[in-house]
Design goal:
Elements (H helix, E strand, L loop, with lengths): L1 E2 L2 E2 L18 H21 L14 H11 L4 H47 L10 H8 L1
Length: about 140
C-alpha cells in the first residue's frame, strides 16, 4: 500500500531514506477519543434540529413550520424541508465519524495496554522483575 508517497512495505520515503513508524502516546489517544465522544454528545444534544420540539405525532417544530408554509402557498416550506434533510444527513455523518474515532481509540488504547502488559510479564530483568516495554525498546535501538 502506498500513502502520499510513503512506501509502507519497507518504510521508505520517496527519497529512499528510512522513516520510523508513527509514535503515539496513550495520553494523546485518550484525549482525542474523549474529545470525539464529547463532540458526538454535543451534536446529538444541540444540532438535531429535526428532532427538536417533537409533538405527539412525532413532528418537529421545523417540520410543522414547513407544513404551515406549504399550507399558505409559500415555496419556502419545501426549501426548509430540503435544508433540514441535508443538515440532518451531514450531522449524522459527523456523529458517526466521532463515534467511530472514539470507539476505535478506546479499543486501540486497551489493546496496546494489554499487549504491553503481556510483553512485560513474559520478559524478566536480571532481578526477576518484569522488563518494561520502554527498556526493551532501548535494547532494540
Amino acid at each position: 500500500m502506498r500513502l502520499n508517497g510513503y512506501n509502507a512495505e519497507n518504510r521508505q520515503s520517496p527519497d529512499g531514506n528510512y522513516t520510523p513508524g508513527l509514535t503515539v502516546h496513550q495520553d494523546d489517544l485518550g484525549d482525542v477519543g474523549k474529545d470525539a465522544y464529547k463532540l458526538h454528545r454535543q451534536l446529538q444534544k444541540c444540532a438535531d434540529i429535526d428532532g427538536k420540539g417533537l409533538d405527539g405525532s412525532g413532528h418537529s417544530t421545523t417540520d410543522r413550520a414547513a407544513r404551515e408554509l406549504d399550507q399558505h402557498d409559500f415555496r419556502m416550506g419545501k426549501a426548509l424541508r430540503t435544508v433540514v434533510k441535508m443538515w440532518d444527513t451531514q450531522r449524522r455523518t459527523l456523529q458517526q465519524g466521532c463515534a467511530r474515532i472514539s470507539n476505535h481509540l478506546d479499543y486501540t488504547k486497551a489493546t496496546h495496554a494489554r499487549e504491553d502488559a503481556d510483553i512485560a510479564a513474559s520478559m524478566k530483568s536480571p532481578d526477576g522483575k518484569p522488563t518494561s516495554t520502554s527498556a526493551i525498546y532501548k535494547w532494540i535501538k
